[in-house]
Amino acid sequence: MAGLTAPVTNLSIDNENEAIQQESKDLHKAVTTALKNEGGGAPVHTFNPDASAEEKKAEVMKTATLTKPDEIQKPSLTTTADTKKVVVVADDEAVSTPPSSTTTLNDSVKKTPGSFVVDSSSIPPDWYKIGWTAFSNLPNPGDEKAMAEFLKTHTQDQVKEAFFHSRSSNGDVDDLLAQFISDKYYGKWYYDCGVVFVAIFFTWLLIKLRLGLMSCFIVGAFFATYYRTSIKRTRRNARDDLSRQVSLTRLETDVETVGWMNLFLSRFWLIFEPVLSAQVIGQVDTILAENTPSFLDSIRMSTFTLGTKAPSVDGIKVYPSSAPDVVCMDWKLSFIPNDILDMTKREAENKVNPKIVLTIRVGKGMIGAGMPVLLEDISFSGTMRIKLKLFNEMPHVKTVELSFLEKPHFDYVLKPVGGDTFGFDINNIPGLQTFIQDQVHANLGPMMYAPNVFTLDVAGMMAGGVDLDSANGVLAVTIYSANGLKPSDIFGSLDPYCVFKVGDLNNPELDRTAAIENTSNPKWNETHFILLNNLNDIFSFQIMDRNSGRNDAEVGVANLSLKDVQESDNAIEGLNLVVLRSGKPVGEIKADVRYFPVSLPEKKENGTMIPAAESNSGIVRFSVLDCKDIGGAVTGKKGLIPIIGSGSNVDAYAIVKVNGQVKLRTNTFKRSVNPRWNKFVEIFVADKANMDLEVTIMNSVDFGDDTVLGKWKSSLLDMERQLVNEKNDWWNLTGGTGKIHLDMTWKPVPLTGFSAGLARGSYRHPIGVVRVKLNHARNIKNVEALTGGKSDPYVRVMSGLQPRGQTDAILDDLNPVWDTAVYVPIHSIREDLTLEVMDWNDVTDDKFLGMCELLIKDIAVEKKTDEGETIYESLPAVRRIAELMNHDRKSGRGQLNYEASFFPTLALAHEVTEEELKAKQKENEKSMGAQDTKKNNDKETTPVTTEPVDSTEPTKPTGPPTKDLHGELIKYTDDKRIDLLSYESGVLTVKIHEVVLPQKAKAVVEILLDSNDAQFRTSEAKGTTLSFQESGDAFVKEMDFSRLVVCVRNPKHDNEEHRLGFWTDNVRNIVQDIQKQSKSEIEKEATDDIKEYKLLDCPNGLIRLSFKFIPVVQFKLDPSESLENQGNLTVTALSASGLRAADKSGTSDPYCVFYVNDEKVYKTETYKKQLNPVFKNETFVAPIARRNKAKCHVKIYDWDQIGANTLLAEGDIPIADLESFAAKEVNVPLQQGGGGGGGGHIMLRLKWEPQLLARRREGTSLLGSTTRILAGGTGLAGDVVGLGVDAGGKVITGGTKVVTGAVGGGAKLVGGAIGGGFGAIGRGIGKIGGGNGNKKQSSVDMTSTVPTSPEAPPVNPPMPPIPTSRHDSSEQISQQSVISNSVVSSNDSLARPKSVFEDRGKNATVKFTVVGARNLKEVKRDKPLDPYVRIRLGKNVLYKTKHLKKNNNPEWNETFVTKIFGSSVIDMSVRDHKTLTHTDIGDASFHVSEYVDEGRSFDGWLPLVPPGTGEIHIQAEIVTK
Q: Do 800 and 1017 meet the contact criterion of CB atoms below 8 Å apart?
C-alpha cells in the first residue's frame, strides 16, 4: 500500500505534463477568440477551467450589470426576413450607459451569521420596488424584529385589523397627480363629475353651432358608453368585495370539504403504504424485543399492514382573523378502513383491512410455546388544530403546533387467543376497553390535548442545528435555600428536598438535592447541572417531604419558564420563586440559573467554517448499540471449548458505569447471542480528562444470580482517539467472547464565567427602588356580607412571600381610597411584585380579596455599556387600572388603581484587575491579527477606511470616577471615599448574623424602617443562640428623619406580649458608622463589619448586625411623602378678642371647639361673661397623618343653659407652613357664624413635631356589640419612651388634655403618634419642654430648648408620657404634650437612676386608686350611664368597681393592691352596666414601669378611646416593704 501512494518524481513525466497544460491553454485561447469574432462584440466570459464553480460564477458576474428603470428604453418587436427570429430593437439609437448608472451584482450584501445562504445574484438593488411592502406602511409579518417593534405601539386586535384590511387594498397609485393632490380633492367621483360636465358642455356647444339633433345623440352615445363601462366596473368590484367578505365570514363559521385531497390520498396510499409498513416493521420489532414484559419470553411481529383504504380529511375550518404571521386551521381526520360506503364494488372486493399479528412466546426454554395475537379493524377519528408560525426565511414555516381539540375516538379488535378464525375479542370483557382508552388519553393528554400543544421546530430541523433527541445545552441550577415551607400533612417532621423536572410533573426527575431534616427553612447551597434540549419548556422545582415507611409527600412546586432564561441572556440571578400547592403559596425558594449552550461550528459570511470552541467540559453521548457472538462461556459445558453461536439461553443486558456510578441499564434482549439495544445516555462532564467508562454485559438468569458475559473499560480520551484516528467502533470484550459495538459523541460546553456564579450568596445588592403609589380601588369583593358588614381592605406589596410594605386599612368600604406610596428595593429585573388586596380582621387571619402583578420590566430596562457593564435605567412611570384576580388568575374581584416608577441605585464601574488587563491585551492582539487576515483576503475589493485598533497595552485607571454608570456625579469626602452622608435617600441593608436570648425560644427577626409594618422578616429559628445569617433591606426616604427598628419576636404572634426584644437607632448614626468603617468599595463587598448590640426589653439579650448603605440616584422625594408631613400638632389656646355679644347682658359665655378634618378633637372650658377671654392652660395634641391635606378649624360657641349653643365665630388654622420643633404664636382671624363679617381673633401657640404615627383601626368585633379601638402598630413606642433618655416632660393638670383621633388624609384612622421610639424625629434638635414630674406645676414652657447629646444625661429627671387607651398590647401611642426630639440607641449609655423595674424578671407591689371619671359618653348615643371600671392584666381581671346609676361624672375612690412585673400593662375598661348585656364606653392603658417608680407616684387623668368618650382619673404608687 505504501508503494501505491508514493509520489512519482520522474523528470520526463513532469515535462510531459507541462506540455499538455500549455497546449490546453492555447486551445482555450483560440476558441475564445473565435467566439468573440462570431458574436459581433458580445461579451464572452473566460476563466480558468481549473477554478471552482463559485469562482467561475463570480468571474462572470463581475461584468453583469443591471440598468435602472428610468434608463431602460422602450423596445419594439421586429422580425428579420432572413432568420425569422424575433429581435428586440430600441426605438432610438443605442446610447452608451455611463458607469455610474449601472449596479454590479458583485456588491456584497451583509447577512446575519447563521442565516440561510442567499445567492448574491438574486438580490436586486435597493432602488427596485419589489413586493407589497414597497407600497405599504405595514411591516412584513415574517420579519420578527419589525413585528416586535410594531406590537409595542399597537395591540393584537389593532394588528389583526390592520393586516386584515391590507389584503383587500391595492396600495397607493404612484402617479404624478396623486403626489401633490389629496385623495379628498382628487378621486374617482371627480372623474364621473367631469364626464357629466363635459357632456353638458359639448351639448351646449353643438346647440350653439346650430347643429342638428343627431349631433346631440352622438354626444349622448359617448356619455352612455362611458357610463355603461363605469357601472360595469363598479358592479364587478362590488360583487368581488361582497363575495370576498362572504367567503371570509364563511371560513370562520363553515367547514370546508377537501375532496381533492382525499382523492389524492386514495391514489397515493396504494403506493406509499408498502413503504410505510416496511419502515414500521424495521423500527417496531426492535422496540418490542426491548420492552417485553418479564412474564413473557419474547414478542416478535410476524404480520403488519395498514390496509388499502387511505386516511381521509373530513373537513377543514380556517380562522382568517388570526395574527398576520399565523395560519390556524382545524382538521377533522378519520381512518376507518371498514367503511365501504364510499367504495366501488371492485374496491370493496379487493379491500384489505389493517392487520397486525404478534407472536408471543410464553414459558422458558424448551417448554416455551409461541402464541399469535391478532389486532385488526383499527379505526380512528378526531379533530386536530394545526397552527403554522410563519417567518421570512426558508422554509418560511418556523414552527408547527399540533393539538387535539377533544379526545380522539379510536376502536380496534384484539384477539389474543385463537387467531382470526376462533379468536375472542377481549374488549368484550366489562371495563377493559374503557380502561385501555383512559390509559391512552392519560399519556397523550399532557402532550397534545388542548390547551397543551406538540410543537415541531421546522426551521430548526431544516437547518440541522437542532437535535430534537439529545441535549443541546446545560442548565446550571444553584439552589440556596427555601423559606416558610408548609407541610402537606400533619404527621412527622418536615424533611424537605428539591426535585428538578422539565415539562410535566409526571416526567422523570432529572436530579435532586439532599434532604434537610426537621426544618421548614432548609439551606442546600448545591449546584446541579441539568441537560436540556431546548428552552421552550417549564422548569419545575418540586419540593418534597421525605418520609420513612410511606411515600414521600409533595410540599409544592415552583415553576420557571425557560423562555425567561433565554430572554435574560441565558442567566437569571437572585431568583425568588413562590412555591405553590393547589394555587396557594406554601413557601419560597432562592436560586440562580445559568444556561450554557453546546458550542457548534459556525459558518462565516465568506463561506469558511469556524470550528466549535474547545472545552474540557461538555456533554458526552455514549451509545451501546449491539454485540456479536457473545455467550460462548455460558453455553460451553464441562470445561469444553466454548461454542459460539449456540447461545439459545442467552438473555443479555448491558450496564454502563461512568466513574463507577451506574448511568444506564438496558432492557434484556432475550434468546439471542447477537443482542441489539440501540440505547444511549447523555452525561455532563466537568473534566474530560478524568472520565472513565465501563460496560458490563450480563446474562439474565431466572433462578439464580446473573452471570457476566464480558466487560469493556476505557477512558473517554482513549475511546475518542480510537473512534477518530482508527475509525473503529467495535471493541473486544474481556472476560468473555464476542465484540461490542459502541459509539460516543462529544459536545463541548464552555462554562464561561461560571466560577463567579458559584461564589454568589442568596442576597444580591439592590439595583434600584420601585415606588408604588396605591391610589384607590373599586368594587372590592365583600367577604363580610354574611355578618352584615363590609370588607376592610388594605393593600400589601409582596416580593415573593416577603411583605415589603402596606397601606392602612379602610374600614367598611368597598371603594377605598388609600393615596399611599410604598417604596420597595428590588435586586433583579425579574423580581416582579404582587399587589395583594386583603381584608383586615380583628380576631381571625386577614382574608385575601384579590391581587394583580407588577412586572419590573415595564418600568425598568437592563442595558449594557460600551465596556460591557450592566446598568438598569428607568422607563416612563406607569399608571394602571388593574383587574384584581384570585389565585387561579380569574378576574372579577374589582379594580386597583396604582402608579409605579423605578429609581436606580448608584452604579459604580467594575474595577479592572491585573488578570483582566492581560486578557484585554491578548484580545487586542487577536483583533490586530484578524484585521491583517481580512486585509489579505480583500486584495481585489475596494479599499474601505477602517478605524485602527489600539494595540497599546490597556492601563489600569487611576483615581476614583467622577460619575457613575448612570452619568450621575459621585460625591466624595476629602479622603476620596464616597460621601454616603451627603445622600438623603438610599437603601439600607441589614444583615442579621446572630441573636442571643436569655432562654430558649423560637423567634424571627423583623426590620422596620419608618414603618409600622415589617419590611423584612427572617426565617424561624429556635434556641438560645439563633444563627440567621440573612440580609434584608429597606428604603431610606430622608436620612435626617429616618429611624431603624430591629425587632425579635415570636413568629406566631405579632403583638407586644410576644415580643422578645428590639434594637433601634437613627439611620444617620448607622451610616456614619459605615462611613468610618469603609476603607474601599472592595473591602466593603468582601467582609462584613459585625457589631454587637444590646436588646432592649430583653435582659442579657444580644444581637449581632452589620450594615451597608447604597445611595439612590435620580430620585426626588414628593413633599407630601416626607416624614415631616406627619406628626403631632400641639395647640395651646392663649386668648380670643373681638367676639360678638350673644347674651342680653352684652357679653357671651364662649368656649372653643377644635376640629381636624371635620372631626372634633378638643373642647375648651366655658369662660362666662367674656368677649375677650384668656384661656387657662388649654393645650392638646392632635396627631395628623398628612399635614399638607389636613384641615384644622376652630369654632367658638356661646354656651346657653337652655336651648342650642350659638355659633359666635369660626376660622381656619394654618399649619402647612409651620416650622418643625419650633413653637409659634399665630393670630387666627375669625368670621362670624353664618357667613357674616369679621368675628374677632384667636391667639394660638402652635408647634409641629414630625414623627411616625401608629396605626389604629376602628372596627366592630365579631364577638360582641361593643365598639373598640383596634391596634395594628409595632408595639415599640411605649418601651422606647420608657428609656427615659431625653424624654420631654409632661405636666398633668386639669386643663391640659391629650387628644387622639385627629388625622389627615383619606384614611379613617384613630390614634396618636408613636412617641419615643419613633418620637420627635431628627438630629441635633434640642429637647423641647421641661417639667420635673411635679403634679402641681400648672404650665409648660413651649419655647425653651436644651441641646441634646446621646451621651449627656437629662437636665431634669425625666417625666414619662401620658399613656393612651389600649385594646391590643402590641400598640402604644405616645400622647405627651411635649415629646422628646431624640431617643438614644439601645447600645448607648442610659443615664438615669436605677428603677425598681430594672430587672423585668422581678415583680413589685403597686397600689391603684380609681378616683373617678368625667364627661362619659357613648360613641353613638348621649344618655345617662351606669358606669363601672374593670381592670385587667392580660386576660386576668384584677379589680372591678361598683356601678353608679345614671352618673356621667362618677366618683368611686376605690383602692386595690397587686403585684406586677415591670413589663406589665394595665388595661382599664369603663363599661355601662345593663340588665342583659354590658357595653364598652372607652378603654385606657397604663404602663406601670413608665409612670411610677420608687419615690415617684402617678396622679392624673387618662383619656378614653374612642376619643370624646371621656376621661378616667387614677392614682398609682409603689408600696415598699
A: no
